[in-house]
Amino acid sequence: MTTDLHLNGEVATAAASGNAATERFANDKSAYAAVKDTPPERVDLLARSVLDAIHETIRREKVTYDEYNALKAWLIQVGKDGEWPLFLDVWVEHVVEEVATDHREGSKGTIEGPYYVPGAPEQGARGSVPTREGEEGTALTWTGTVTSTDGTPLDGATIELWHADNDGFYSQFAPGIPEWNLRGSFTVGPDGVFEIRTIQPAPYQIPTDGACGKLIAAAGWHAWRPAHLHVKVSAPGHEQLTAQLYFPGDEHNDDDIASAVKPELVLDPRPQGDGAVAVDYGFVLDPARG
Ligand code: MBD
Ligand code: FE
Questions:
Q1: Which residue, among 181, 140, 141, 184, has the nearest Cα to 159 in the 3D structure?
Q2: Which of 21, 102, 250, 289 could form a disulfide with 114 if both were Cys (CB 3.0 to 4.6 A apart)?
């Protein structure tokens, strides 16, 4: 696992991946548009609740001016490093996801994280994600079915898959990696069946050389996430599922820095004898609510 020098002698820095994630979010998300008509009563309630929680912490822990100034300096640096998406997705998103999917009966989901990019190349129901010549990592063949909660296969369901390479880097957020490397879309037919070939990603360390890394070091935490595959599964008339899948025995399954592991998301891979691994894991989507 390397954290600095990468392909073509280019350096993968926290600021580069952070600023790429910030750019992408600012340009593609309609998050602000979606809440622009939120009534002032709601904004007032949420803003006051968050501020109350901060005030309460300051009183209870008798926060000093030095600590207040350290916070101010750190928040400024989070912005400079473009790490607001990273910070929020690592330490906040998991609770938003929990609340948002509370009502579901189908497959469990988890957080999206900062490195999703829409529009990954379509591979059909059976295919491989784009890889480089000699892409490192254990070969993984993944089969499954996409169904509705009543068991009906979902014709036309699409699985978007994205994950880090064997060094823990994501295409489009680290230098020197082809644009769509280890990113693909798979659309199933009437039987709902897919077969995806990729590599098993490695355990992943969030960037340590930026503001989030400073917090982790200052607090004596660690920066690791377990190895994971990201997916978004969509089908007409159904709620989109955002999930991550994990591998049994990963030492960070129990202490993911992003708190995004759930037992239902741990795969049960079968070694194939030739060094490759096969796994069966399908998705059950909830019908969209009226
Ligand atoms: C990741 O790859 C990730 O999935 C999350 C949630 C945060 C940082 C990097
Ligand atoms: Fe990730």
A1: 184
A2: 21
Judge whether 265 and 126 are in contact, CB under 8 Å.
Answer: no
- 279 by DSSP, 3-state: which? strand
Ligand 1 atom having least distance to the Cα of 260? 6
Q: Is the CB of 89 under 6 A from ligand 1?
A: yes
Instruction: Among 89, 215, 242, say which to mutate for ligand 1: greatest number of ligand atoms within 8 Å of CB.
Output: 89
Q: What are the tens digits of pLDDT across the range 168-196?
A: 999 999 999 999 999 999 999 999 999 99
pLDDT digits (tens, 9 = 90+) for 43-80: 999 999 999 999 999 999 999 999 999 999 999 999 99
Q: Output the CA angle 230-94-115, nearest 5 degrees.
A: 35
pTM above 0.90, yes or no: yes
Measure 90 CA to ligand 1 centroid, in angstroms: 7
DSSP state of 244: E
Mean pLDDT, all residues of the chain: 94
Question: CA angle 193-198-203, nearest 5°?
Answer: 120
Mutate to test the pocket of ligand 1, among 24, 86, 206, 229 (most ligand atoms within 8 A of CB): 206
- Amino acid sitting at position 240: Q
Question: DSSP character for 114?
Answer: S
The position carrying tokens 């900062």 is 114
- Closest Cα to atom 6 of ligand 1: 113
- Domains of the chain, with CATH numbers? 1-290 (2.60.130.10)
Measuring CA to CA, which residue among 138, 153, 157 is closest to residue 227? 138
The angle formed by the CA atoms of residues 240, 85 and 4, to the nearest 5 degrees, is 115
Residue that the structure tokens 């990468």 belong to: 6
Residues pairing with 126 in the sheet: 195
